[in-house]
Amino acid sequence: MNRKHFIVLLILGLFIAACKKNSAVIEQIETFLGFQKPTNFPATVYNFDNNPITKDGFELGRMLFYEPRLSRNNTITCGSCHIQSSAFTQHGHDVSHGIDDRLGTRNSPPIMNLAWNKAFNWGGGVYDLDTQPIIPITTHEEMDENLENVYNKLRAMPKYTSKFKAAFGTEEINTANFMKALSQFMLMCISSNSKYDKVMRKEAGASFTAEELEGYNIFKDKCGTCHTEPLFTDASFRNNGLGISPVNDKGLYTATLIETDKYKFKVPSLRNLKYTSPYMHDGRFLTLNGVLEHYNSEVRATQNVDPLLNNGRLGIALSVNDKTKITAFLNTLNDEDFINDKLLAEQ
């Protein structure tokens, strides 16, 4: 075999290998297994009997999640404020930036593990995932649109009428099916493959370092009551002693008008903190060290401050060593598979 023939065969071999690799990736994307509860997670809260996840329903929800026509001027998508590479948050912004670059008053919360959520939004007010998208679509600072306008825009597009038909058996685009489709996509945003998860599932080769294990034990002692495993939130609303914001956001009270709910906000999950800064409901802390120092020395006795933070002293005593080791443990909750999952990406 001469040199020319060898080079031709080599190039052909590389081409065939690349095609096989691409085919494998495409096959992986197209293989839809539906909702799979992680083995180390508890039972879900969402009622799947009313909205079973199907391939067509999920794909329709994904299309809608990344559809700019959900906004008034066709520029903002759900994915604009919930970016996959940032664990479906709007990384780098203290508060959300919406249509016409209008500013909201709260940090964009991550979209992950919603099947285990009983309430939504930092300040509550929504207790059914199937109705939650109404808020961002209609809010002045977010998408500033109304649902009927959205439906009319979608009805003019054959790709949507055919996809609604495939997902729900009818081309009709109505609120029930529109919301169910979005829920099907969001319910599939499951983050459960961090180092922590692999250790808990006793997967081969998975183990904490000595520092991570020490941090885990400190975390369970000092933080685990509110940030309960494995979701790392107890889904409650609490006042964690932050100073009152310039806009005087009263949190859960805005939804309930109950005096004892003032300044209570939803306890966030601590998963994927590497990707979701800044932190707190108004994005006031840029770093995890800032968050930990808040609990150590900056907790204020504001109205309804949580009793766990006012037990003999305000806050939670954390030494420099404690903070270092807790941070090491928190880093085991980052899930690269989640932020790189092609199934969840805009197609």
Question: What's the gist of this structure?
Answer:
This protein has 347 residues and is an all-alpha fold. 37% of the residues lie in helices and 1% in strands. Strands 1-2 form a two-stranded antiparallel sheet.
Which keywords apply here?
single chain, 347 residues, mainly alpha, Cytochrome Bc1 Complex, Chain D, domain 2, 3 domains, two-stranded antiparallel ribbon, 13 helices, 2 strands, 37% helix, globular
Oligomer: single chain
Q: Using the coordinates above, name the CATH class of the largest domain.
A: Mainly Alpha
Q: Could you state the order of secondary-structure elements as H and E?
A: HHHHHHHHHEHEHHH
Mean pLDDT: 93
Number of helices: 13
Shape: globular
Number of domains: 3
Sheet of most strands: 2 strands, antiparallel
